[in-house]
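Reviewer 2 asked us to include a model.

Predict the structure of this chain.
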Amino acid sequence: MKKQFEGRSLAHPGCLIGITAGLIMGIVLAGVLASVFNAALNVVLLVWLGMTLGLGLLGWIIGERLSMKFFRPREQAEETPSTDSSPSA
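Predicted model (structure tokens):
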């Protein structure tokens, strides 16, 4: 199963998870700011946008670091001999 993911980047799924978490947490935090602290609309929207973009970037960076840590680059994966019994063309 690990061979399917060799050379793949986890930055895109990490960014997706970060954007999703940022949207959810940003909406909740913006709602709290608007209702409890009576913050201005532009402040609330900037907090929401900052949380969304910040967590998306954080997810991208973490995903990229994890893909470098767990998976070999495609060039190194191609150099190692395969143990598959299928003929290579």
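The mean pLDDT is 82. Residues 10-68 form one domain. We have added this to the supplementary material.
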